[in-house]
């Protein structure tokens, strides 16, 4: 993320806050999540680590309460395929990002191998049961208007996940 002292960072779908202790403590970190239970756990983690630079809010990332052009850096980790409408999520990320902001998305996208993709499309039919869409295609995400994609990298075990690093254009 290359977040430096004084910058404001948004973590969308912060969950239990696993990443929060890893940010520079001189950055102002805002974490949002739809789930109050997740935020409770993130809050406990902040207390345990003495993180005074973190604010947590219950909020739908597809319809955020923040004004336009607020954040220098935005991270969305394992959240694009769990929201109802990834397009709204990306539009909101773009809206609240400052011009030139760095956005990092980590997510599982539909696999390029046709056999694996077939399995993913089959289980996508039970998305409601497994909690995420295993067959979300990457192209609409990296082609979203207003994001200049700088890198698309395989991430995590066997590269099954993808990291997208982009810069916001306004
Ligand atoms: C798979 S978890 C990832 C959590 C965290 N980013 C991590 O890497 O540990 C996805 C998170 O997104 C949250 N979430 C789902 N839909 C959301 C929405 N519309 N707005 C905000 N958060 C949402 C869930 O409550 C959950 O905490």
Task: Provide an overview of this structure.
The protein is globular and about 45 Å long. The protein contains 5 helices and 7 strands; from the N terminus they run ββαββαβαααββ. The longest helix has 14 residues, at 36-49. The chain has a single domain (8-168), classed as Vaccinia Virus protein VP39 (Rossmann fold, 3-Layer(aba) Sandwich), CATH 3.40.50.150. The chain has helices at residues 36-49, 86-96, 114-124, 127-130, 139-142; strands at residues 8-12, 28-33, 54-58, 71-77, 97-107, 147-155, 161-168. The mean pLDDT is 90. It is of the alpha/beta class and 170 residues long. The chain has a 7-stranded mixed sheet. Residues 13-15, 18, 32-35, 38, 60-62, 77-79, 82-83 line the site of S-adenosylmethionine.
Summed up:
This protein is α/β, with parallel strands linked by helices and 170 residues long.
Q: Which strands sit side by side, in order, in the main sheet?
A: 3-2-1-4-5-7-6
CATH class, anyone? Alpha Beta
Query: What is the CATH homology-level superfamily?
Result: Vaccinia Virus protein VP39
CATH topology: Rossmann fold
CATH-scheme architecture: 3-Layer(aba) Sandwich
Describe the structure using short key phrases.
single chain; alpha/beta; Rossmann fold; seven-stranded mixed beta sheet; 5 helices; binds S-adenosylmethionine
